[in-house]
């Protein structure tokens, strides 16, 4: 059982490092997809079968497809190596990263007594039916119906918002902005010719 | 959960057998498509290699292996080589949940279930792997570094993602009636009653129709194959691919067709159920394959008969017509389940 | 059984990597992906706790978080597309018109 955990954990960490260290955004996206799939494997080791399947269907199969579409539609190439105006941030990032990792190490080594029990809503299910679709469905449609409905309204808002924000400008807007931006460029030419 | 050597060996043998059986079925589906298409179009298909052309798949395989492997200069080599793998592996991974038949009794070995494994989220597993298969097409279009490939890849994957929605929604009615996402459980739920227990007749005709149309769009087949066919005239997301890599895309498309046909038989046509299957369990796989082949034949028949949709008609249809009908099907199924049963 | 602290440590490492990515990355889309990385690390924490207290609330929370992340990704990418259309660059350092 530990082998599975270490396998998925190593793949997840390596792919996550890939996300932040790659230059080409498509490689970052692929790194994130691999991270998501290995996290789904970790969810399976935690008896969360439904969540693992939903993670792959929703996150790796839909959200990341959206990311990849955007990268391809905007034709994003690899980053050019320009002068970084905020270079000090990079030198700040590594010590902070190590400090945070040190905190994690401290937590793992010292905190080993189980925290107090959190009271469950209703009766706690046995482990065998913990992650199944039936138990999640039952909880969601009885105790947590309000968040479910609120989520559906949220998704509706997201659909409307995304369509509105990503819509192309109308032709009249484009002509106006062209008129204002090309004027200063033409003036020096005209004044030069007039003289 | 005990993972001992016996379990592993049994699983390995089953996987090997299932893989080879499905691979051979896929190879002969390609041949069958060419022959059936030919008969419908009033000509002969390939019938030279072997009796009635039955050795044609092997000739094709030999050709694919021995063809020159071209890699164009301007492609993104890493993604170019990754794309066929990302398309093919999920298409084949789905095989482990196909329920081929009931439990049979073999001599010397005892009871053997005719499926590799039984997941209690079996249907979600199938949909998850189908969602992952989209990446191969997108990456192939991008890596080929040519305008036509990119557009073909984007259109094809946009179509697949759109129809995945109505695909997933259309099966919810059948899942509600069976009460489980486990494919074996769904087949058990449709047993008996001389075929009238099949979900196709037992209140899911709309679901079946929506599923069928979404599945044909999902696998990029006629009449929804504009991303492949228009770009057949120019290029395609697999234009820059030659020989074995193209064969992988080709095989993945047929594997997707097979997967979708299997899910259609399991969810709507009763899986391995049929007359006398309880007494003679070996009839189970026979009925299963008969139904799956019927769906494959339906695919080929549609390809020979129907013209194709234009891309905007296709997307309109998926979002504005199929999705509301799928949602309506869920409401109707739920109403029937609560009030009538 | 694997101790809970291992899962929490892994989740913290992934979250940290996400934070570093948000600070270091200049490409807006990669920045967004690091935010999604952080959300996933939190999902792992929630599922781990849900398993160790045998309580389905954690998994439900993860479900809702995934739905919210999907909505946020859609709107965020729409904003990025409209940003790109007006500026022709995806470098986040270039979006500094409101700077003093």
Distance between the termini of chain A: 84 Å
Spell the H/E element sequence of chain C: HHH
What gross morphology of chain C would you assign?
elongated
Low-confidence stretches of chain A: 181-195
What oligomeric state do the depicted chains represent? heterotrimer
The total of beta strands of chain A comes to: 0
The CATH architecture designation of chain C is Orthogonal Bundle
DSSP helix fraction of chain A: over 70%
The tally of helices of chain C reads: 3
Tell me the structural class of chain A: mainly alpha
CATH topology of chain C: Helix Hairpins
User: Level of helix content of chain C?
Assistant: over 70%
Count of individual beta strands of chain C: 0
Low-confidence stretches of chain C: none
The profile of the biggest β sheet of chain C is:
none
What would your notes on this structure say?
The complex is a heterotrimer of chains A (195), B (341) and C (100). In chain A, helix 1 runs antiparallel to helix 2 (25-45) and helix 2 (25-45) runs antiparallel to helix 3 (49-73). Chain A is built from 7 helices and no strands. Chain A has helices spanning 2-21, 25-45, 49-73, 88-110, 133-142, 145-165, 171-194. Chain A is globular. In chain A, 29% of the residues are buried. By secondary structure, chain A is mainly alpha-helical. In chain A, 74% of the residues lie in helices and 0% in strands. Chain B has helices at residues 5-40, 56-66, 77-93, 122-132, 134-143, 147-170, 172-178, 183-189, 205-218, 226-233, 243-268, 283-305, 311-340; strands at residues 101-106, 110-114. Chain B is globular, with a radius of gyration of 21 Å. Helices cover 66% and strands 3% of the residues of chain B. Chain B is mainly alpha-helical. Chain B has one domain. Chain B starts with a helix and ends with a helix. In chain B, helix 6 (147-170) packs antiparallel against helix 10 (226-233). In chain B, strand 1 (101-106) and strand 2 (110-114) form a beta hairpin. The longest helix of chain C has 31 residues, at 57-87. Chain C has helices at 4-24, 28-52, 57-87. In chain C, helix 1 runs antiparallel to helix 2 (28-52) and helix 2 (28-52) packs antiparallel against helix 3. Chain C is mainly α. Chains in contact: A-B, A-C. The interface between A and C is large, with 90 and 68 residues.
């Amino acid at each position: 059982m530990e082998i599975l955990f270490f396998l998925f954990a190593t793949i997840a960490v390596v792919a996550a490092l890939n996300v932040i260290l790659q230059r080409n955004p498509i490689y970052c996206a692929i790194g994130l997809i691999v991270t998501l799939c290995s996290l789904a494997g970790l969810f399976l080791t935690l008896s969360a079968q439904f969540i693992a399947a939903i993670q792959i269907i929703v996150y790796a199969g839909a959200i990341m497809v959206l990311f990849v579409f955007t990268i391809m539609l905007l034709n994003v190439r690899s980053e050019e190596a320009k002068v970084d105006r905020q270079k000090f941030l990079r030198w700040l990032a590594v010590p902070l990263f190590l400090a945070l990792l040190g905190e994690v190490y401290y937590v793992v080594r010292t905190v080993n007594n189980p925290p107090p029990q959190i009271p469950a809503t209703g009766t706690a299910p046995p482990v065998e039916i913990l992650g199944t679709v039936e138990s999640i469905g039952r909880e969601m449609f009885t105790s947590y119906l309000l968040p479910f409905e609120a989520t559906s309204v949220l998704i509706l808002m997201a659909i409307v918002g995304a369509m509105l924000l990503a819509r192309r400008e109308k032709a009249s807007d484009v002509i106006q902005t062209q008129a204002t931006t090309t004027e200063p460029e033409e003036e020096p030419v005209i004044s030069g010719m007039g003289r | 959960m005990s993972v001992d050597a016996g379990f592993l060996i049994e699983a390995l043998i089953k996987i090997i057998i299932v893989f080879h059986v499905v691979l051979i079925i896929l190879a002969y589906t390609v041949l069958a498509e060419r022959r059936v298409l030919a008969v419908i179009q009033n000509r002969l298909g390939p019938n030279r290699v072997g009796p009635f052309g039955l050795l044609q798949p092997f000739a094709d395989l030999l050709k694919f292996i021995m063809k020159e492997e071209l890699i164009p200069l301007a492609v993104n080599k890493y993604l170019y080589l990754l794309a066929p793998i990302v398309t093919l592996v999920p298409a084949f991974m789905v095989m482990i949940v196909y329920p081929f038949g009931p439990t049979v009794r073999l001599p010397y070995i005892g009871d053997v279930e005719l499926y590799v494994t039984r997941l209690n989220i079996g249907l979600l597993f199938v949909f998850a792997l189908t969602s992952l298969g989209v990446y191969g097409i997108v990456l192939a279009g991008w890596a080929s570094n040519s305008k036509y490939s990119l557009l073909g890849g984007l259109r094809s994957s946009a179509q697949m993602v759109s129809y995945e929605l109505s695909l997933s929604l259309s099966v919810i009615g059948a899942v509600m009636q069976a009460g489980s996402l486990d494919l074996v459980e769904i087949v058990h739920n449709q047993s008996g009653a001389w075929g009238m227990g099949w979900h196709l007749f037992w209140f899911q005709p709309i679901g079946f129709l929506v599923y069928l149309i979404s599945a044909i769009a999902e696998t990029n087949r006629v009449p929804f194959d504009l991303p492949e066919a228009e770009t057949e005239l120019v290029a395609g997301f697999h234009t820059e691919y030659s020989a074995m890599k193209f064969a992988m895309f080709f095989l993945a498309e047929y594997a997707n067709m097979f997967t979708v046909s299997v899910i259609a038989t399991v969810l709507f046509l009763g899986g391995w159920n049929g007359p006398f299957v309880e007494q003679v369990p070996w009839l189970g796989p026979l009925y299963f394959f008969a139904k799956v082949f019927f769906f494959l034949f339906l695919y080929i028949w549609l390809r020979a008969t129907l013209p194709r949709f234009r891309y905007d008609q296709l997307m309109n249809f998926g979002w504005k017509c199929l999705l509301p009908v799928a949602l309506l099907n869920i409401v109707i199924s739920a109403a029937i389940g609560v009030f009538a049963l | 059984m694997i101790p809970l602290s291992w899962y929490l440590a892994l989740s913290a490492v992934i979250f940290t990597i996400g934070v570093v990515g948000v600070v270091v990355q200049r490409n807006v889309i990669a920045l967004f992906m690091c935010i999604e990385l952080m959300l996933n690390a939190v999902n792992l924490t929630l599922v781990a706790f849900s398993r160790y207290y045998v309580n389905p609330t954690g998994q439900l929370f993860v479900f809702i978080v995934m739905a919210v992340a999907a909505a946020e990704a859609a709107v965020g990418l729409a904003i990025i597309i409209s940003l790109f259309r007006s500026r022709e660059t995806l470098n986040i350092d270039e979006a500094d018109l409101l700077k003093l």
